[in-house]
Amino acid sequence: MYHVKEAFYTLQGEGGQTGRASVFCRFSGCNLWSGREADRASAACRFCDTDFIGTDGQNGGRFANAEALAAHLTALWPDRDGLTVRAATPYVVFTGGEPLLQLDAALIQALHEQGFEVAVETNGTLPAPAGIDWLCVSPKGATELAITAGDELKLVYPQADAPPERFSRLDFAHFFLQPMDTAPTGKVGSTMAECVAYCLAHPQWRLSLQTHKITGID
Predict the structure, then answer these.
(1) Which one is catalytic: 3, 10, 18, 50?
(2) What's the rounded Cα separation, in Å, for the pair 138 and 123?
């Protein structure tokens, strides 16, 4: 049984695949925060701005098996004149919460059979199943990483317990810093300036912006 908070068709808003048409599937649940405000102060991740509780979001629900969920997500990819658009490879992004609590080899295979590339955005604390086509790890605080290699490491910055130097020698193809929405000082703009300064001083890192928020894309 898979529990999905929401699923929708959009453009990827951040990181190495920014601008790519994507089906997003947000799984319910996380291993670093319950999602309830009452628990935020004691959570391993305290800055999450996402609702991942329940299955009541857009196209959310419970799915009994991999084939059912794969069919549900495939139906969200655009269809013209009765033919699936293949000019671009269909692309699905699993996120959360923490998607690796639920994503498994059976679901990856079912989506591959539908022609999809499969991407994951994970906090990296759980092992990943085989077959993922684009693996993005976004470390949170002092948590220990179970995944130390992949396509993209995307670090929300600044985090006192997660300085970029801690991750710079890991085996990722791309390294991104993404400004935290709210700076420790409460001044939103200051995190942008800090990210820009760090990337200029350490050109291994690239700046990632949440373009979906800038453009108003859901």
Answers:
(1) 50
(2) 5
Q: Would residue 174 show up in a list of annotated catalytic residues for this protein?
A: no
Is 136 part of the annotated catalytic residue set?
A: no
Q: Find the helix packing angle between 105-113 and 66-74, rounded to 10°.
A: 40
Task: Given the residues 6, 14, 25, 30, select the one marked as catalytic.
Answer: 30
pLDDT digits (tens, 9 = 90+) for 144-187: 999 999 999 999 999 999 999 999 999 999 999 999 875 444 45
From 6, 121, 151, 152, the catalytic residue: 121
Please pick, among 6, 14, 27, 48, the residue that the annotation labels catalytic: 48
Name, in order, each residue with C-beta under 8 angstroms of 188's C-beta and a sequence gap of 6 or more: 181, 182
Q: Does residue 5 sit in helix, strand or coil?
A: strand
At the second CATH level, the architecture of 2-215 is: Alpha-Beta Barrel (3.20)
Q: Residue 74's pLDDT band (boundaries 50, 70, 90)?
A: very high
